[in-house]
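Researcher: Sequence recovery benchmark, item below. Answer with residues only.
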């Protein structure tokens, strides 16, 4: 803990002065009590319990004064506070490899269950959008506060062929920046990523329309939005996900990646085809590293649930240095009220 006005701490010298004054008053009262015929009778009348009651209210008042003086120095501490996160995009893999049962009951079902639990733990003011990707990517639910609509969108997932992780990232970015003119179709099928990163070209439905010059920002600097990408990481088609990750980094968006599936993988059958599906951790780690995000490995459904719980803590709350003078003042007021209340109750007077 630090203090913004440390010079005000000199006011704490008043505390020992108050203690000395209190002891002086007690001594004066003790001398006055010697006038009684028997001081022992007075002590017997007071009793040990009464002596505690006599000193407790002043002690509480002294404590209140000390805390209040500390508040005047404007203490600052690192505390856990809700973030200003406004939008989260869940980019979820719905490729055929997600039917593998190495994560029970299947990779996709475990991901759906964990994602729905994640939604319930988020602050109600946080918008969430959902992007599903296989050979292509699409927005299955635009960012919304409605948890019911989000759960319904997750339940509608249908497995498809192919895994275009890069497409999932680009569509997620276009969803976060609807007015930035990110031409998804050209980014995925035509124009080079260099043009995409520099913001050249037109927006969707407006070919050739020039956009304002794009200025990259520091990776991870955007505090209002994040992307959570869940996949088995095996890209089979579409643009390079690392180039898409650079686009996200240039816009300050952190991408938290979740790798679901065992490292050994599993052989699955899909529409008459048989394939061996393994988790490609390296790609997911590099995506997270490029964007200043973090990679998580989920080898079981329990792991996946814990990961989403961890993400809730990371995204919904953050540690910040915050002035806590008001908290000190409130504690001081509580001690002062308690001191006055006990004094009135026991002695019929305020201190």
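Model:
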């Amino acid at each position: 803990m630090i203090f913004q006005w440390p010079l005000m701490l000199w006011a704490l010298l008043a505390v020992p002065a108050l203690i000395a004054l209190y002891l002086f008053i007690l001594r004066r009262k003790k001398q006055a009590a010697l006038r009684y015929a028997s001081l022992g009778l007075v002590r017997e009348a007071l009793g040990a319990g009464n002596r505690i009651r006599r000193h407790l209210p002043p002690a509480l008042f002294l404590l209140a004064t000390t805390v209040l003086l500390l508040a005047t120095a404007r203490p600052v501490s690192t505390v856990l506070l809700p973030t200003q996160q406004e939008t989260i995009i869940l980019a979820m893999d719905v490729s055929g490899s997600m039917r593998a049962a190495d994560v029970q009951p299947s990779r996709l079902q475990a991901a759906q269950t964990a994602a729905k639990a994640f939604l319930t733990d988020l602050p109600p003011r946080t918008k969430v959008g959902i992007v599903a990707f296989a050979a292509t990517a699409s927005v299955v639910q635009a960012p919304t506060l409605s948890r019911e609509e989000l759960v319904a969108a997750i339940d509608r997932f249908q497995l498809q062929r192919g895994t275009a992780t890069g497409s999932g990232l680009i569509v997620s970015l276009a969803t976060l920046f609807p007015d930035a003119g990110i031409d998804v179709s050209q980014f995925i099928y035509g124009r080079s990523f260099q043009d995409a990163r520099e913001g050249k070209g037109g927006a969707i439905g407006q070919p050739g329309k020039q956009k304002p010059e794009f200025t990259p920002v520091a990776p991870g600097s955007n505090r209002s939005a994040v992307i959570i990408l869940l996949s088995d990481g095996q890209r089979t088609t579409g643009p390079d996900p690392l180039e898409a990750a650079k686009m996200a980094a240039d816009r300050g968006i952190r991408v938290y990646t979740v790798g679901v599936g065992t490292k050994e993988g599993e052989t699955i059958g899909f529409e008459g085809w048989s394939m061996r599906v393994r988790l490609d951790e390296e790609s997911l780690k590099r995506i997270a590293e490029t964007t200043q995000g973090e990679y998580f490995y989920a080898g079981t459904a329990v792991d996946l649930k814990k990961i989403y719980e961890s993400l809730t803590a990371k995204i919904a709350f953050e540690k910040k240095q915050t002035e806590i003078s008001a908290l000190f003042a409130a504690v001081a007021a509580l001690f002062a009220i308690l001191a006055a209340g006990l004094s009135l109750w026991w002695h019929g007077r305020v201190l």
